[in-house]
Write a structure and sequence with these properties.
Order of helices and strands: EHEHEHEHEHEHEHEHEHEHEEH
CATH topology of the largest domain: Cobalt-precorrin-4 Transmethylase, domain 1
Largest sheet: 4 strands, parallel
Number of domains: 3
Helix content: 40-55%
Bound molecules: iron/sulfur cluster
Strand content: 15-25%
Structural class: alpha/beta
Length: 290
């Protein structure tokens, strides 16, 4: 038996930084510590954060004034950031804000603020319900959000205006190219910024490659994590023997047999210790090549 890991898998840069910020803050024993939302879409990680002393609160609680925050508490902002309004309320409460917003998300926010100050109207391509999008656009004045090229096409732009076009970090690259080609053809007055983060597409591409090369594929991730579910879809398309497993206790060893090539991949929200435990469980029960 052989275990092959995907070339790119597990925590992305931004999530890794946010989780590290949590561990760093957990060393402070004398203060109350909070995390805004799920630092990572993985219930085992959230449980671990609670175990090391964090209380998880959400934006709705802060916006409605029902949060338990008090002056001097510390709060970590997750990798996908939050809205301007939430930041303002946190400042008013005089809590210590540890902003773990990913630098790629922050960069889009910076461009948006700068381009608006130069007089551009902003077009934002993304899912307006996604926390990252809600956060970024909240720093602008008037943002036109479209989720797809067809939605954009339904709204004619003004050729006499200057536009800046920004996107969600995880926008599909193919969709981005289609939008870019459309705008370049019909609206030369639109300046397009490509700030898509490669973490998602890299993990999908690596999973595709892995799934072709293996007899069975284990995608490790939370059942509610959209990026892990997407990896499973990619894997199944190449290899029907692909399974999403949340942790080692859920791993059913009867799906394996000797001489199999087992592919292992994991979403950007899956920590290395969960991946390792699954790998070790297989190694402990089968004769796996080193
Ligand atoms: S997916 Fe990309 S943008 Fe989002 S947190 Fe990870 S590295 Fe940052």
């Amino acid at each position: 038996m052989e275990i092959i890991r995907a070339e790119k898998m597990g925590f992305c840069f931004g999530v890794k930084k946010a989780v590290e910020a949590c561990y760093e803050l957990s060393k402070e024993k004398e203060i109350r510590k909070f995390i805004l939302g799920m630092v990572v879409h993985n219930k085992d990680v959230v449980k671990e954060m609670e175990r090391i002393g964090f209380i998880i609160i959400n934006e709705e609680d802060i916006l409605s004034g029902k949060d338990p925050l008090e002056k001097g508490d510390s709060i970590i902002i997750r990798a996908h950031g939050t809205t301007n309004k939430v930041i303002e309320l946190l400042k008013l409460k005089e809590v210590v804000i540890i902003d773990a917003t990913c630098i790629f998300v922050d960069k889009i926010k910076e461009i948006l603020i700068e381009r608006e100050s130069l007089g551009d109207e902003i077009i934002f391509i993304g899912d307006k319900e996604h926390p990252e999008v809600k956060g970024i656009v909240s720093f602008g004045r008037k943002i036109n959000i479209f989720k797809s090229l067809s939605e954009l096409k339904e709204n004619s732009l003004d050729l006499s205006k200057k536009y800046s076009v920004l996107t969600q970090t995880t926008l599909n690259k193919r969709k981005f190219v289609e939008i870019k080609e459309y705008l370049q053809k019909y609206y030369p007055n639109a300046k397009i910024f490509d700030r898509i983060c490669g973490a998602t597409s890299e993990r999908q591409e690596a999973t595709r490659k892995l799934s072709r090369a293996c007899d069975i594929v284990i995608v490790i991730g939370d059942l509610k994590s959209s990026n892990s579910k997407k990896l499973l879809e990619v894997a199944i398309a190449e290899n029907p023997k692909s399974y999403l497993v949340q942790n080692d206790t859920e791993l059913d060893l009867s799906i394996f047999s000797e001489n199999m090539k087992i592919g292992i991949t994991a979403g950007a929200s899956t920590p290395e210790n969960i991946i390792k435990k699954i790998e070790n469980k297989i190694r402990g029960n089968f004769n796996v090549k080193l």
